Amino acid sequence: xxQAPAKQTATDTISTLCGRLASATLLEDRRAAILGLRSFAKxxxxxxxxxxxxxxxxxxxxxxxxVDTIKVVLETLLMLFNPNEQSPEASEEIALWLADEFxxxxxxxxxxxxxxxxxxxxxxxxxxxxxxxxSDARPERTQECILTGVGKxxxxxxxxxxxxxxxxxxxxxxxxxxxxxxxxxxxFENAFDKxxxxxxxxxxxxxxxxxxxxCLSLLANLVRFNTSNQTAFREMGHVARxxxxxxxxxxxxxxxSSMEEDDDWVSPQANKNLWGxxxxxxxxxxxxxISTLPNQNAFVKHGILQQVVNMAFGPASVxxxxxxxxxxxxxxxxxxxRLQEGFAQLQVRPVVEPVTNGATSPREPTTVYIxxxxxDLALTPASNDMFDVRFAACECIKAYIFNHLQIKTHxxxxxxxxxxxxxxxxxxxxxxxxxxxxxSQVIDPYRTWFAAVLVFHLIYDDREAKNELMQVVEGDxxxxxEVVTCIQTLTGNLIASLQLGEDERIPIAYxxxxxxxxxxxxxxxxxxxxxxxxxxxxxxxMQKPGQDLIVIRGLCASLLGIIYEFSTKDxxxxxxxxxxxxxxxxxxxxxxxxxxxxxHHPDVRDFEVIPQASGGALxxxxxxxxxxxxxxxxxxxxxxxxxxxxxxxxxxxHDGIDRDLVDSLRGEIDEKQHAIExxxxxxxxxxxxxxxxxxxxxxxxxxxxxxxxxxxxxNEELHRNHENDTKKAEREHRQASLELENKYxxxxxxxxxxxxxxxxxxxxxxxxxxxxxxxxxxxxxxxxGEVEQRLGASERSLQEAGRAHQEAMDANNALEKRYRExxxxxxxxxxDEVGAVTLEKGTLETQIQESEAxxxxxxxxxxxxxxxxxKSSSSSKDLQSTVDxxxxxxxxxxxxxxxxxxxxxxxxxxxxxxxxxxxxxxxKLKKADAAAKKKEEAxxxxxxELDDLFVVLGDLEEKRARDKKRLKxxxxxxxxxxxxxxxxxxxxxxxxxx
Length: 994
Prior knowledge:
By secondary structure, the protein is mostly helical. The radius of gyration is 58 Å and the shape is flat. The N and C termini lie far apart (153 Å). The model is unreliable at 252-261, 354-362, 977-984 and 986-994 (pLDDT under 50). It is 75% helix and 1% strand. The protein has a two-stranded antiparallel ribbon with strand order 1-2. Strands 3-4 form a two-stranded antiparallel sheet. The protein has 43 helices and 4 strands. The longest helix has 121 residues, at 659-779. One of its GO terms (biological process) is intracellular protein transport. It is found in: Golgi apparatus. One of its GO terms (cellular component) is endoplasmic reticulum.
């Protein structure tokens, strides 16, 4: 019976196909194997990848000319990246492993980039998809590998086939999201032009599809936080093309359809596209960026500001577009004085809440100035759905007054004037705050909140604005009405909102404004303390329990801390009484706890204003960004305020300060600052000099160390060279010995060969002779005698050969013995030479040391002799100057001269010995010879001086003798003692002469 063949498993089949792919030489065989692997790639990705991945990658390069094979290979690789989720081998690690295999070698990515350049549709499309899959798995490595080929990817944006173009666009989005270097390279490949061409070809913003969104995403990636690309965008003239995309620009003729209804059609993606473009505009206007100012000017120059304003107030614009348009307006004019001044001249139609189904009012509204329209938008009660629009309008007004003192002053004065006159037709922030709680505020607490934020920004950190607003009062004193200041009115409204339990956003708004106003303003604090009952109300509010009052308690504590910090002893409530009130009725611990709870509250600690979803509830917006920064900067100061001694006040500048005095003081400060800078510069110069000197000293020390190191290195090299020479000599000796042994061994072998050859020849001859003898013995019995004679001759020749062999062996032994004796003598000679060299080296070192010691000794003796000669010179001068003590000093001088004479003789003897020793040494002792010559000259000079002294003494003796003789002739007596002394002196002189 025949047995059925064993059923082959998928793993075995995959293994077989992998083997065929690796070993096949024909293109058709490889293609068939790849087709088989493709059928298994979805279900068995791990098995296919582990057995054939490298062969598949190699096929991309080997079979690049065959588009059918390349298509199958790319499809197989894509299936490996995206296997069936139900497959037992499906895993995210497979994609990582595949991406690693591609990115670990630049050649693999280069192969894919080469396929992207081809004209074949599937090769180009699948290569882009494969690179995208690799980028998704290993984005950083892919970005590094694709740097040199990014131009090939950008070129796909010009492909006329939508699939290829879209895939290239998506890949560029992925690659440019995080790599700034790739962003620059993409822009260098003229990507901006290609992006705008794609947007225009797809129907621009109003009729564009998802392709426009991808183009806007790529544009956002290229310009986000990239100042160089923003500069290139601006300088290449793309701002005008950006403006042409916005509504209100001149429409270009479209070639995609000739029917008018097609031109009026609006894509469902239109609002998303427009919102995306507005978001890109804001990326050019980042606060604090160096490119923001030129971007602002360029946008305004091309009319983008007017277009955005029209969108913000256009009746057809949806709320998200209005919000983003107002934010763009704020960013476009912030911190740009020229644009801020021109912004107020723009006129718009006021915004009204959208009517159901998008219908507009049939009545044509009149135009108003944009600031009035923004105020109306922010301060007019509206539904919660309009909060983000109102918040954006408030941000736009804040940008309008940002860091512009003249605009701030004008805005504040107009608000004050409109409030006092009561004729202001537009919404007035000051009137809204001072009017207190009304029905609209209760329904819409953000009306009060926006008004407080605007006034807060008008007076924040501006003393003149605070003083001007402080002049606003309620009531007429002449009519007998009570006069209430602006601060007291605001405080009253605050207390009323707290007592009535109104929405917490209203008291928070008043507390923000009062805290910013009273900070560092003692006059405003005194105004507040004019109504002392307000303190009691604030303290009572802080004593209320409840988690929902944490923010209110914290802000009340902050306001009380500011009041105490900047109060004085002359305040309506003296500073000492104020501290007693806070510590007794409130308590230090409760005050600090309220500050700490506010500091750690999420609305303060994690402050962020995010767009609010429309759901009918009030948005979770409680604070202004500037006020939160103000709180965070002063939390520590407010915590320490309650512990400050009431005697110590925070000094504040008084009104009416002399500006000339201030200017002169500032000038003195500038001069002193300049002097300080000069001194610091001098100090820096001195420090540099000191550092330079330290560096030079370190350099000298390093040089000295280097010299010591060089000396040590030279010494080591000498020892090493000596050892090398010794080893070299030993090697040469061993080599010579080996050569001799080899030579003699070869000779011995040759002699042995000769002996063996002779022996063999003899043996052969003997065998031949015996064979001949036996043959002749059988054949010629009669010739026996002759054969015997020949046999005897053969035996003799054999004996002679044996003797020759013995003689050769004896000669060989003698020769070997003689060679061994020569080798041993050579080794002994080498050892003797090494010992002699070592001994000679030690002897030379000993002689050098003895010579150096002798030189040092000779120098010391020279110094002693010099000192002795100096003493002799001084003694000679004393002899010349004193005649009365001549005899005693003469005796001492003779003794010293005698000693010096012997010392000079000894020195001369030592010098002769030293000179004899120095001549035997090297030229380094020449300096010692020169010193010896100098000593000889000094000795000769001393001897000359002594001879001159002896001459002087002889003259004195002769003069004395003549004086005695003259005295004797005159009859004077001369004592014999003197004569004896003279005789003794004469004898001593004679001895000295001998």
